[in-house]
């Protein structure tokens, strides 16, 4: 057969070039979404079960399930483990720790919760409820088994030795770094730590992630940070709740996402901005104290709405100056959590602001509970001075907490500021 005329080649070449270019763009788009390609490639190529996990599918940006037979999902592998089922250890059996354990169990994970109180642990194992916190709610999860309680370091060490364990840390903020410093030898170097505490470490004015790494005396430990508008009681009640988890490495955040999302009552979004998520969760606390002050002064919705809106702008400024992303503050870890704590009387910070305006002292308020917003207000001013930021609302709340100005002086200061544009392009 004679070769085709030259004109046929000229019509085929552009089509091939366009198809090759399109395929190249498709592949490059998914590769560029990953900040740590080597880790993800290794994790997703070890065994077949890794490819069936929801976490890896989300990280790749492609739903691999459609290319894998559905018969594979849910079966046990050679080690007797179920695809998608993870070992989760919750450190701390307070309200939020209990809620996180319940959410993890709802996701079908093997969940263990550690506490120091042996009696509390015994009641959790016998009666499937936490006698100290959220005691009206059952910890039984249909179809996925019960949450187990442990209370000794020996048991904790054994549970943490499980391959691929994920540790949800639900200790009070100021106790978290000291606990890790005391028990650093128990923590596997490759275990993923998901920190739920919303605050700053006051002893050193550090972000919680930095303080934990210092406490562990390690330059690297897989870390993720969970935040967002989330009262523990409403999670237990089954109210639809959305959270955000952030990590420097996408693989870690989507792993926590897969553990806690049950697609019924809890949905978790991912973020690659741990700095912004930490700052949003921590610095909303003093702003919530300010919201309580506004309410106690007798002002209405006009004032409170204005205060929260302008406060979110200040939160955005400090986030960007500290190395975070402004868009994080526009999301669940920023304005979402800020609205929750400013508008709800369930918030200890909001109630604290009201009590301060009624004449109570900081010492009296903190006799029975810790209010993170009081001490965090001091750190917020340290950060503002470091970054050269005005932040008038933060500064007024700080001064009111320490009785350096009167409410009338605070109102005059905020309302009498120089005129400016509402939205500034450069924060």
From TrEMBL:
Q: A GO term (biological process) for this protein?
A: glycerol-3-phosphate catabolic process
Q: Does the keyword Hydrolase apply?
A: no
Q: Which InterPro entries match?
A: 6-PGluconate_DH-like_C_sf, 6PGD_dom2, G3P_DH_NAD-dep, G3P_DH_NAD-dep_C, G3P_DH_NAD-dep_N, NAD(P)-bd_dom_sf
| Parts of the chain that traverse the membrane | 12-32
Q: Which reaction is the catalytic activity of this chain?
A: sn-glycerol 3-phosphate + NAD(+) = dihydroxyacetone phosphate + NADH + H(+)
The record's section on HAMAP family has: NAD_Glyc3P_dehydrog (MF_00394)
Mind telling me which NCBIfam families this protein's record contains? PRK00094.1-2, PRK00094.1-4
User: Which protein are we looking at?
Assistant: Glycerol-3-phosphate dehydrogenase [NAD(+)]
Lineage at the top is: Eukaryota, Sar, Stramenopiles, Ochrophyta, Bacillariophyta
């Amino acid at each position: 057969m004679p070769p085709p005329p030259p004109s046929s080649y000229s019509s085929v070449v552009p089509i091939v070039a366009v198809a090759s270019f399109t395929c190249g763009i498709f592949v490059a788009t998914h590769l560029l979404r990953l900040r740590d390609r080597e880790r993800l490639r290794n994790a997703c190529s070890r065994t077949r079960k890794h490819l069936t996990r929801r976490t890896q599918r989300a990280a790749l940006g492609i739903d691999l399930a459609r290319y894998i037979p559905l018969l594979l999902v849910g079966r046990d592998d050679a080690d007797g483990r179920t695809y998608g089922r993870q070992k989760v250890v919750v450190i701390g059996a307070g309200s939020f720790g209990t809620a996180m354990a319940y959410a993890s169990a709802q996701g079908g994970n093997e969940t263990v919760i550690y506490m120091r109180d042996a009696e509390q642990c015994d009641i959790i194992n016998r009666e499937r409820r936490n006698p100290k916190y959220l005691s009206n709610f059952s910890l039984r999860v249909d179809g996925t088994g019960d949450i187990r309680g442990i209370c000794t370091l020996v048991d904790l060490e054994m549970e943490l030795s499980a391959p691929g364990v994920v540790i949800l840390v639900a200790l009070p903020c100021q106790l978290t770094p000291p606990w890790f410093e005391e028990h650093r030898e128990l923590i596997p170097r490759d275990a993923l730590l998901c920190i739920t505490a919303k605050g700053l470490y006051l002893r050193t004015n550090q972000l919680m992630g930095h303080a934990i790494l210092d406490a562990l005396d390690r330059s690297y430990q897989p870390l993720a940070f969970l935040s967002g508008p989330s009262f523990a009681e409403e999670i237990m009640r089954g109210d639809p709740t959305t959270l955000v988890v952030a990590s420097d490495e996408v693989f870690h955040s989507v792993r926590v996402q897969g553990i806690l999302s049950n697609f019924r009552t809890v949905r978790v979004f991912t973020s690659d901005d741990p700095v912004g998520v930490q700052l949003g969760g921590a610095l909303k606390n003093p702003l919530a104290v300010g919201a309580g002050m506004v309410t106690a002064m007798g002002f209405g919705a006009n004032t409170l709405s204005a205060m929260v809106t302008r406060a979110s702008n200040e939160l955005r400024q400090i986030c960007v100056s500290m190395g975070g992303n402004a868009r994080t503050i526009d999301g669940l870890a920023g304005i979402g959590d800020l609205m929750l704590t400013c508008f709800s009387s369930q918030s200890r910070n909001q109630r604290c602001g009201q009590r301060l305006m009624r004449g109570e002292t900081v010492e009296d308020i903190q006799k029975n509970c810790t209010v993170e917003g009081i001490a965090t207000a001091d750190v917020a001013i340290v950060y503002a001075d470091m970054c050269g930021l005005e932040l008038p609302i933060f500064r007024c709340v700080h001064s009111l907490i320490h009785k350096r100005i009167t409410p009338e002086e605070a109102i005059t200061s905020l309302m009498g500021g120089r005129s400016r544009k509402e939205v500034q392009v450069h924060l």
